[in-house]
Write a structure and sequence with these properties.
This protein has one domain (3-150). It contains 6 helices and no strands. The chain has helices at residues 3-17, 21-28, 33-66, 75-95, 102-111, 116-150. The two termini are 33 Å apart. 33% of the residues are buried.
Length: 152
């Protein structure tokens, strides 16, 4: 397997877990702007698709396996309910790359019973917006700052 392909798959896979890894790893691997954006959006959306369609089953399994004696109302759960009531799916989608992970944001939307097509659309729009912002800052400006600091 070529080195470039391994770099791309690494960025894609890590972005499925945490959005910011896409731009950071792209800069680290010297991946240019457009592929960095595409890998970042693709990684997040792969996670979103997986957990949108398998989210209820995964959540049910998780609760049965690990949450036998769970507390029904915790401060974290109350905060999620407040965010959902105040901002809805658009707020959760906008906050997913910043605060939640692609998995976490999707699971919040699924747990509140949002329609699958709406989850996919809002997360896709959010992923594109934040990928453009973060890749611009990290991939493009990060290189300029690095070159300035190293004196090259």
């Amino acid at each position: 397997m070529s080195t470039e392909l391994i770099k791309y798959l690494t960025v894609f896979a890590w972005t499925m877990v945490k959005f910011i890894f896409g731009p950071v790893l792209s800069a680290l691997f010297n991946i240019s702007f457009l592929p960095a954006v595409l890998l970042t959006v693709g990684g997040m959306m792969a996670s979103v698709v997986l957990f949108t369609f398998a989210g209820r089953a995964i959540r049910h399994w998780w609760l049965l396996k690990f949450q036998q004696n769970r507390i029904l109302f915790t401060p974290k759960k109350r905060r999620m309910v407040r965010i959902w009531r105040k901002y809805g799916i658009w707020g959760v989608a906008a906050l997913t790359p910043l605060i939640f992970t692609p998995i976490g944001g999707t699971m919040i939307a699924v747990s509140f019973g949002e329609k699958k097509h709406k989850i996919l659309l809002t997360m896709f729009i959010s992923a594109i917006f934040w990928a453009l912002v973060f890749c611009s800052l990290i991939v493009i400006l990060g290189k300029e700052v690095f070159l300035h600091l190293t004196g090259h």
